[in-house]
Amino acid sequence: MNDMRPLERAVETKEIKFECRDCQVYYGDTHAIKDVNVDIEDKTVTAFIGPSGCGKSTFLRCLNRMNDTIDIARVEGSFLLDGENIYDKRVDPVQLRAKVGMVFQKPNPFPKSIYDNIAYGPRIHGLAKNKAELDEIVEKSLRRGAIWNEVKDRLDAPGTGLSGGQQQRLCIARAVATEPEVLLMDEPCSALDPIATAQVEELIDELRESYSVVIVTHSMQQAARVSQKTAFFHLGNLVEFGETGQIFTNPKDPRTESYITGRIG
Amino acid sequence: MPLLWIVLVVLGLGLIGYLMGRSRALGSAGGDGRQLHSLPSYYGWHGFMLTVVPALLMMAAWLLVAPSVIENRAAAGIPDAKIAERGSRSLVMAEVRRTGEALDMAVAQGTMDEDMARNLRADFTDVTERLKATGAIITTTVDQPILEAAQNYRVMAKASNLYMSIAVLGLAVVGLVFAFMRSDKDFRARNVVEQGIKAILILASTIAIMTTLGIVLSMLFETANFFEQYSWREFFFGLNWAPDFRGNSELGMLPLLWGTLYISLVALLVAVPIGLFAAIYLSEYASPRLRAVAKPMIEILAGIPTIVYGLFALITVGPLIRDWIAQPAGFGNSTNSVITAGLVMGIMLIPFVSSLSDDIINAVPQAMRDGSYGLGATQSETIKQVVLPAALPGIVGAVLLAASRAIGETMIVVMGAGAAAAQMEQGLGAIINPFQAMTTVTVKIVSQLTGDTDFASPETLVAFALGLTLFVITLGLNVLALYIVRKYREQYE
Ligand SMILES: Nc1ncnc2c1ncn2[C@@H]1O[C@H](COP(=O)(O)OP(=O)(O)OP(=O)(O)O)[C@@H](O)[C@H]1O
Ligand SMILES: [Mg+2]
């Protein structure tokens, strides 16, 4: 019967979206990422975990070349997105970032209205033909960001006037609005209450159907709940990378084990 | 006692107060600092503050009040006829002071002894010659009433100085003893010092505010005098500026106000785009190394004296504009023009706009830019749609500050645009042609005050009315700028 087909598809081996080889990042003289090799699959949620300062954000920022904006940062290695090296001279970082969206660790809404915050990406990329379409995109994105009900009556209010958690969901909605192929989320739930967290996790699960999502998190439970693949970083090294279930139940490296059982961090 | 000595002695007492307060507090705690309510140095500062601050305040007050009291008393002996002869009381008093100084010098040089200086009489000896011999500036013959007043003046000034020394040093000692008595291990010196520091800060800001108030009040006073002699309606709405020192002047301020606004507008049209673009380039595109060189270079512009800009306008820009634009196009043939002054003033204002805007643009958090780049925006899109809107209120503040600079500028206007008021009655062409000479409120304030006329005539007093108007305008602009800048602070975060 038809019921069988989605299951069949789920078993298919997924395409590799990002293939990262021998990646190094330096901040001036600090070697922040050392020899990282990782494959990020399409239509999968990949979680990055690890103690604070181990380089999760740094590595995440390599994936859409956000480190370009930091003068002292230097990135080496190959990052193949759909087979093309994103650090190649021919690649326009601007277009890359439209494809690889990002939600930052700290909420950073623009000092504009809520509506304009969401409409920002669609406007610069010309995603909407007219106002009605734009309205539709804004509403859909806010709903996906699990914040529609709270802001639907005040779309003209400034985005900076929202609470921290609301701002973060606004930023998620903003990133989703440009329809990226890969969504990078840096601790998207660290400022959210359990209800909003559940809503965002639901969103992540939904995004997985069409995109690849990479999420940095400090919550083991969250990583276990939402991700299929988990990467454990420690002091700039990728210590272990594998199926989430395997990492959490049967870690191979002793450092991973002590981290998830709460002994380092 | 010379002032410097008084101050030094007071400071010395303060030091003693510091050491005594500290050691007494420590002593009351048996030498164990931990038993004290506050750190030992707080007891010291408490002693220092109580010794020095009231004493110096008293000295400042004395120095402010005493001269006018002494002058009043010395002037009391001068007959009215004398005052009428010399014109005004202040002129007579200036003479008295100079004579007094000459007597001091004579005593210092040994040509007179103190007794002689006090009892000298103009009717018996040739005082004038003897005083001139000291090298003092004596312009008229010193006659008996003046000499007597000067002698009184000297004696009173001496006495005042003596009383002041005693009072100030006495107060310092009282403060010292009081602080010393209070220093005890349970005394909350830290809190008192905190209060004291707050009081000093409040005092400083009060002085600033009072000065502003004083300026406004003195202007108001003279302006009121002016409006008693000249109709305010004609002043504010008159289209003609034609002062005539023989009377019957027309003192409409609109031509001057128009000149001010027009020249400022041209200046801002030059300064704002250039300054803003320079700021954007420096803060967003330039490499740190280029920025480190370029920013100070632009700021050098702000250090050039306005008179130098004026010269530049007078001998370079003015003739250039006349020869290459105004004359060929038939717009006029004067070297002085609105355009010249506006252009040069605009150059002067570039660093104001660029430096402030640069700071403001830099204050926009990097997270804001990251957010925009993260959505796939280019650098110029990010600047246009995120950075500038976020910085806009601050930039407007910077522009308004530049505008108040432009409105207050005098030198560049005289040398660039001349000193002839706009001929508003000749119609629109005469008003808006930017290639003609025009002048501003500030220039006319100077020329009205330096005119050789009676100080009480409307032709002179009008300067105060103009000044006050200008003050109100720039104050309004500054308040607006402050308001906008403050609002801007709440923007992000
Ligand atoms: N802009 C920067 N300049 C210099 N050093 C940096 C910069 N950003 C990060 N680092 C350094 O790189 C290392 C990794 O930082 P990163 O922000 O990637 O850690 P993280 O794993 O995201 O930590 P957290 O969980 O606390 O967010 C740290 O040692 C940090 O000090
Ligand atoms: Mg991080």
From TrEMBL, chain A:
PROSITE patterns (UniProt xref): ABC_TRANSPORTER_1 (PS00211), ABC_TRANSPORTER_2 (PS50893)
Q: What SMART domains does the record point to?
A: AAA (SM00382)
A single GO molecular-function term is:
phosphate transmembrane transporter activity
**Which sequence ranges form a coiled-coil region, renumbered to this chain?**
none
Signal sequence, start to end = none
SUPFAM superfamilies for the chain? P-loop containing nucleoside triphosphate hydrolases (SSF52540)
Task: Kindly give the CDD domains that the UniProt entry links to this protein.
Answer: ABC_PstB_phosphate_transporter
Per the record, the GO terms for biological process are:
phosphate ion transmembrane transport
| Keyword annotations of the record | ATP-binding, Nucleotide-binding, Phosphate transport, Transport
Q: Where is the ABC transporter domain?
A: 11-260
One GO cellular component term of this record is: membrane
By its UniProt entry, which InterPro entries does this protein fall under?
A: AAA+_ATPase, ABC_transporter-like_ATP-bd, ABC_transporter-like_CS, P-loop_NTPase, PstB-like
PANTHER family registered for this protein in UniProt: ABC TRANSPORTER I FAMILY MEMBER 17
Q: What is this protein called?
A: Phosphate ABC transporter ATP-binding protein, PhoT family
In which organism is this protein found?
A: Tropicimonas sediminicola
TrEMBL record, chain B:
Which InterPro entries does this chain map to? MetI-like, MetI-like_sf, Phosphate_PstC, PstC_N
Question: In what way does this protein cross or attach to the membrane?
Answer: Multi-pass membrane protein
The terms under GO molecular function for this entry are:
phosphate transmembrane transporter activity
Give the record's keywords alphabetically: Cell inner membrane, Cell membrane, Membrane, Phosphate transport, Transmembrane, Transmembrane helix, Transport
Task: Supply the name of the protein.
Answer: Phosphate transport system permease protein
UniProt record similarity statement: Belongs to the binding-protein-dependent transport system permease family. CysTW subfamily.
Instruction: Report whether Transmembrane shows up as a keyword of the record.
Output: yes
> Where would you find this protein in the cell?
Cell inner membrane; Cell membrane
State a GO cellular component annotated for this protein. Answer: plasma membrane
Stored PANTHER family: PHOSPHATE TRANSPORT SYSTEM PERMEASE (PTHR42727:SF1), PHOSPHATE TRANSPORT SYSTEM PERMEASE PROTEIN (PTHR42727)
Gene3D superfamilies xrefs: MetI-like
Q: Name one GO biological process term.
A: phosphate ion transport
CDD domains under this entry? Answer: TM_PBP2 (cd06261)
Q: Which organism is it from?
A: Tropicimonas sediminicola
Q: Any transmembrane segments, and where?
A: 43-65, 162-180, 200-221, 256-280, 300-321, 333-353, 461-485
* Its job: Part of the binding-protein-dependent transport system for phosphate; probably responsible for the translocation of the substrate across the membrane.
> Which residue intervals define the domain ABC transmembrane type-1 in the entry?
257-481
Q: Where mainly found?
A: membrane
